[in-house]
Amino acid sequence: MILNLARRAHNHNWALDPIVRSLLDTDFYKLLMLQYIWKHFRDVQVTFSVVNRKSVVRLAEQIDVEQLRAQLDHVRSLTFKKSELVWLAGNTFYGVRGIFEPAFLEWLEHDFRLPDYLLDVIDGQVRLEFAGEWTQVTMWEIYALSILSEMKTRYGLRGLNELELDILYARAKTRLWEKIERMRAVDGLRIADFGTRRRHSFLWQEYVVDAMQSTLGDRFTGTSNTYLAYKHDMEAIGTNAHELPMALAAMANNDEELLQSQYKVLELWQQTYGGALLMLLPDTYGSTQFFRNAPDWVAAWTGLRIDSKDPLIAGEEYIAWLKERGQDPCRRRLIASDALDVDEILNLHHRFHGRIRFSAGWGTLLTNDFRDCHPRGEHELEPLGLICKLQTVNGRPAVKLSDNYQKATGPSDEVARYRKVFGSEGVENVPVLV
User: Fold this and answer.
1) Over the stretch 383-413, which tens digit does the pLDDT of each residue have?
2) Which of 384, 410, 307, 378 is CA-nearest to residue 147?
3) Closest Cα partner for 200 from 161, 157, 149?
4) Which pTM value belongs to this model?
């Protein structure tokens, strides 16, 4: 793909340059989870809100709120195109054709609409919230994050002339190439793009994904971005996220139901999907307690994604647990996905290759690594730790504990209550990079 990124960034002569141009421009797991929610929890009411983990960055001073409103309104005007729905209906995902039910696709075409939002500014931060039916609200997450991330990028590029933009992108391309070069010679490496939510821009993500596909061959397994998979005939990668166990936990009526809710999610998931989509995400309330309390049938799932624990520790914990349950780790998959860069990916591959089917989901530092690339030496292009999290479910607060104290979310009294139920074994307190 030949694209003059500098000229494209420099020449803005239109009233609105839409950041999201298709409803497929989201992580694939959001569509899988949407069908799950549509099947099992169609009447549930939720709220989501955007949180800036780096509160020292006053985001509202870098983003024009009215331009943000225009971008959000544009996304609300979009609908799924016929060609996109035909692709979802007929394509093979994880070796299965027809993974999306005809009735669900019919609902997507005729009944799905993004609900309105609440947008204002509080103490230099953007306040952005979404409320309504879970089936409608959930899709806002990735659209909102990618819009905010690219608007921050546009702020960082303001005032740069075309030569300076050329220098910026030349440095970023060189960095990308150096990372790819280190991976090209590594046998058995498996890596996917997980970088939609905090990307530098849509065009840069597309450039990166194209570069990975053309140079890494079968080492590059695909992208989490459904639109890029659709456009470039790639594998769409993704399964599920913390949103599901957070919602079921919030709906629990007592402590025992709360403890078991993390497995109830899995029961319903395997009623909806199977095979390679049976991927565990055990850290919502702590991985160690998840393994200790898990029913035997959970060990038969295809694999595990690590999100908030040191992946070296988490990988060894999972392998040991599989062996205790009489499972062969070599028949299971281990995916690392939290704040990875090339050094961590290669180290993890070296540690686990041949012991378990290891792969990496490379996110922010694949699609938004412009650190020290700015031609004027400024730091405005460093990625920002934005999240869009479930806040309430049917009026009850939603909580995530994580394997890292720094990543816990929810009201402090509810977090304390959850910790009494789930415990804190294996939880660490480490800085959050992105």
Assistant:
1) 888 999 999 999 999 999 999 999 999 999 9
2) 384
3) 149
4) 0.95
Residues forming beta bridges with residue 45, ordered by sequence position: 133
CA 116 to CA 205: how far, in whole Å? Answer: 27
Token digits of residue 400:
């995530």
CA end-to-end span of the chain, whole Å? 29
Supply 360's token pair. 């990496």
How far apart are the C-alpha atoms of 74 and 101, rounded to whole Å?
28
Q: How far apart are CA 390 and CA 166, in angstroms?
A: 39
- Kindly state the DSSP code that residue 282 receives in the 8-state scheme: G
Task: Determine how many CB atoms are found less than 10 A away from the CB of residue 209.
Answer: 26
Helix, coil or strand: residue 304? strand
Q: Provide CB contacts within 8 A for 195, sequence distance 6+.
A: 205, 208, 224, 225, 362, 363, 364, 366, 367, 368
Q: Which two tokens stand for residue 310?
A: 């040191």
Q: In which region does residue 233 sit, left (phi positive, over 0), alpha (psi from -120 to 50) or beta (all else)?
A: left
Q: Locate tokens 């024009």: which residue? A: 64
Count of CB atoms situated within 10 Å of the CB of 312 = 15
